[in-house]
Specification:
Layout lengths: L2 H20 L2 H15 L4 H17 L2 H19 L4 H16 L3 H19 L4 H16 L3 H18 L5 H16 L3 H19 L4 H16 L3 H19 L4 H17 L2 H19 L4 H11 L5
Helix pairs in contact: 1-2, 2-3, 3-4, 3-5, 4-5, 5-6, 6-7, 7-8, 7-9, 8-9, 9-10, 9-11, 10-11, 11-12, 12-13, 13-14, 14-15
Length: 311
């Protein structure tokens, strides 16, 4: 590939990254496909672009397309660049996340373990990328139901992350918040609340009140409040968060729907059935608009709505 093609592919790829960062994934996909057509198939630049396209397709919900491309680019990167090359590790990680999104957790686990082993060898056990790989594996283990192993792995990430990345680094905040969710699943709600509060306060101070990481931590904190029995506090916090999500992300964004679902549950537990039923009806309609009426999440929300008493 000539120099002009390299430069052109780079410029298109930068444009695609900008689109992806702003949330315009359809435009990002189009630009990445254009860049790949220019870059060819087996250069490092082409491998990086294809791996980025795997991530975009996964985020768009094209899981089959993402997995097919992910398997191709992972094999290609390992053969052309070597198993421990950073671009190979990125391809393996993106394929693992795609398998996880597809529900193939055992395949995802094997890929996460493969990436983590390579990271430890090539980068060392305390490298930030190694810690990210550990976090990804921990989340996969959590979804597999191996909760104790997941917590043990993520506790090591949280302990090492401040020195490796910085206490205020977003990845440290996310790991802390994720650990809170896992220990909540173990039943330690007090520790979970402390971890979520730590993550929330750090994110609010360093990233701002409407940053996705801040909002995620706030939702987890509110959910834990409700589990602890503070239903009024959980209701108030979730209602404020729902307003923020609707304003910043829109009424049918998947994260908005998740917050709305949490609020419906808290209202139901408080015995505020008219409010719960009204909000649940809005949730079903928004889920059908966003995901389609036959999507499993829409069907689950529809079934949950049907169980709510009229008044």
């Amino acid at each position: 590939m000539g120099l002009l093609a390299v430069v052109r592919a780079h410029r298109i790829g930068v444009r695609a990254k900008r689109y992806a960062g702003s949330g315009d994934l359809d435009a990002a996909q189009r630009e990445l496909e254009r860049a790949i057509a220019v870059a060819g198939d087996d250069s490092p630049q082409a491998i990086a672009l294809q791996s980025n396209l795997v991530d975009v397709r996964r985020r768009l919900g094209d899981i089959d397309g993402a997995r097919e491309l992910g398997e191709h680019v992972t094999e290609l990167a390992g053969r052309v660049l070597g198993e421990e090359h950073p671009l190979t590790l990125m391809a393996v990680n993106n394929l693992a996340l795609t398998c996880q999104a597809a529900g193939d957790l055992e395949a995802a686990r094997a890929l996460h373990e493969r990436e983590l082993d390579a990271c430890r060898r090539s980068r060392g056990p305390q490298h930030p990328e190694t810690l990210t790989s550990m976090s990804n594996l921990a989340i996969c283990l959590y979804h597999l139901g191996e909760l104790d192993d997941a917590v043990d792995l993520l506790e090591r990430v949280v302990a090492a992350s401040p020195a490796a990345r910085g206490a205020d680094d977003p990845a440290t905040v996310v790991a802390t918040d994720s650990l809170g969710a896992m220990v909540a699943a173990q039943g330690d709600l007090d520790r979970a609340a402390r971890l979520h509060l730590e993550a929330y306060e750090t994110a609010r101070r360093t990233l701002g009140t409407t940053h996705p990481i801040t909002l995620d931590a706030a939702v987890n904190l509110a959910t834990t409040q409700g589990a602890q029995g503070d239903l009024d506090g959980a209701r108030d916090r979730l209602a404020d968060l729902l307003d923020t999500y609707r304003r910043t992300r829109g009424p049918v964004d998947p994260d908005t729907l998740r917050v709305q679902e949490c609020l419906v549950e808290v209202l139901k537990r408080r015995g505020d059935l008219p409010a719960a039923r009204g909000l649940s009806a809005e949730l079903v309609a928004a889920s059908a608009e966003s995901l389609g009426p036959d999507h499993p999440s829409t069907q689950e929300r529809t079934a949950a709505h049907a169980t709510l008493p009229e008044t």
